[in-house]
Design goal:
By secondary structure, the chain is an all-alpha fold. It has 19 helices and no strands. The protein has three domains: about 20-210, Up-down Bundle (Growth Hormone, Chain: A), CATH 1.20.1250; about 215-270; about 275-505, MFS general substrate transporter like domains (Growth Hormone, Chain: A).
């Protein structure tokens, strides 16, 4: 599925060359505008977690309300990504991108001015919608202003900067809370949004819009409703205070509406998500890889901190810090992965990268059993960062190179939506599997563990005096199965990528 293989350059404006009007100065402005805009969205997904204790005390909120401060953002961001991508194609990538940045800044101000938990939850929901407008546009703008043979490096730079923002978001948030009120974690977005708007408005040219491109409003409603119910149902499945039967019904309802959405798109004369995109083998295959890879990644990152906290007594801060080597290595290598994709094609990288990531998932089980931060956990997380670092940029590059020029917005929206939904499915589904594995492991390890944990669920906080050898063995036994499962899924994704890439090269 390399970007230099036949069939992947369908969106070039001219064979192998950048249009004369797109200078290096414009390209630099595009990349930095995309980095500033998307970094706000990625950082805000994690930065709020460090402020939850202060928010809860200040707003007199319940734990469930605080969970929905995070969930409302993730839910609307997932639900509106397809709409954000399609709107960019219909009304102009630059215009929708700038609207998304402006709205994200305003909703961040709204979040900081909220006087109740309910108001903050609503503000966070609208903040997620704003993020869904600008994230697909950030990647699509890069694709629109770089030729395919230079696109990988630019996307790698964007991916690296976004990863760094996500890693250092909680660190910056913790510092802001230490020196000021919790509202500062939202207000910091205002100067970033203003700089991104100025840079994009002054230096990035308007994107051409085809006159026959229209917004499929019925498709948009079905997509938002289907993805929204699916995201809400899966999120509620992970909420211990929710009713599982209702959560399951909402999840199924979302799936049914998404089927109706696909049927509508097949019949629509101007579909929001053209299904013929999936007839391009590279586009279909790399989105399948995205689904499997981000399902496995989200599952592994979901299991890890809980296992370290409960099996080894890690503090929350120390457990959270294990992600730093993963994120930093991935950030450093993402740009290199983009350069390699431009030079050698993406097929090899999309095979080797997921295989290295799968190896790291398999090694997490003995690492967690050992429990040593520096000798076991940190090296494995660095290996995981290596695998993802050489995967992310080639994956995004392949998606954008496989889409026609007038559909790069929706192509970016599809790929982002798939990765988000994969994460939601992983956390909900694997959480249930982990609980069953936890209870089975308790009965298998020892009668003491069975008596102590028979009525517990995975991730239930337990007192420090209960941290016996039986508890350690129970958690690590349950984790071995979980990490093994996600390793198999990731390895299957790598094998499928190699197989389908080989078939694409032969056709």
């Amino acid at each position: 599925m390399g970007c230099h293989e036949r069939g992947l350059r369908v969106n070039q404006l001219s064979p192998g060359e950048t249009p004369p009007a797109i200078t290096s100065r414009v390209q630099n402005a595009v990349v930095w505008s995309a980095i500033l805009g998307s970094s706000m969205v990625f950082a805000d997904g994690a930065i709020v977690t460090v402020a939850i204790p202060q928010m809860r005390e200040s707003l007199q909120a319940s734990l469930s309300e605080m969970q929905w401060v995070t969930n409302a953002y993730a839910l609307t961001l997932s639900a509106f990504l397809l709409v954000g991508g399609a709107a960019g194609d219909a009304y102009g990538l630059r215009r929708i991108f700038m609207i998304g940045i402006a709205c994200f800044g305003l909703t961040s101000l709204w979040c900081g001015l909220s006087q109740s938990a309910g108001m903050l939850i609503v503000a966070r929901a609208f903040q997620g919608i704003s993020g869904a407008l600008l994230v697909p546009g950030s990647l699509a703008l890069i694709s629109a202003h770089f030729p395919p043979d230079a696109r990988g490096k630019a996307i790698g730079t964007w991916a690296a900067a976004s990863a760094i923002a996500a890693a250092f978001g909680p660190i910056l948030g913790g510092w802001l809370i230490d020196v000021g009120p919790w509202q500062a974690i939202f207000w910091i977005n205002l100067p970033v949004a203003a700089l991104a708007l100025w840079l994009c408005g002054r230096h990035v040219p308007d994107s051409p819009v085809r006159e026959d491109t229209a917004m499929d409003w019925l498709g948009a409603v079905l997509a938002v409703l289907g993805l929204g119910l699916l995201a809400y149902g899966l999120t509620a499945l992970g909420d211990r205070e929710s009713q599982r039967s209702i959560a399951i019904l909402l999840t199924l309802a979302g799936a049914v509406i998404l089927i109706l959405f696909v049927l509508h798109e097949r019949r629509s004369t101007a579909p929001m998500m053209p299904l013929d995109l999936f007839r391009v083998s590279a586009f279909a295959n790399v989105n399948a890889l995205t689904l499997l890879l981000y399902f496995a990644l989200s599952g592994a990152l979901f299991f890890l901190p809980q296992a370290l906290i409960e099996a080894h007594g890690y503090s929350a801060a120390r457990a959270g810090s294990v992600f730093l080597p993963f994120t930093l290595v991935m950030a450093v290598l993402s740009r290199l992965g983009g350069v390699l994709a431009d030079r050698f094609g993406t097929r090899m990288l999309l095979t080797v990268g997921p295989l290295i990531t799968a190896l790291s998932f398999a090694l997490l089980a003995p690492a967690v059993f050992h429990g040593s931060y520096w000798l076991a956990v940190v090296p494995i997380m660095a290996v995981m960062g290596l695998g993802m670092g050489i995967t992310v940029a080639p994956l995004s590059t392949t998606v954008m190179n496989a889409a026609p020029a007038d559909r790069i917005g929706v192509a970016s929206g599809i790929n982002n939506a798939i990765s988000r939904v994969a994460g939601l499915i992983a956390v909900a589904g694997l959480g249930v599997i982990a609980t069953l594995g936890f209870q089975y492991a308790a009965s298998w390890v020892s009668p003491e563990a069975a008596d102590l944990f028979g009525q517990a669920t995975f991730g239930t906080p337990l007192p420090s005096e209960a941290r016996t050898d039986a508890m350690h063995n129970t958690y690590t036994a349950a984790m071995a199965g979980g990490f093994g499962l996600v390793a198999l899924i990731c390895a299957a994704a790598a094998v499928a990528s190699a197989w389908f890439g080989h078939r694409s090269a032969q056709t």
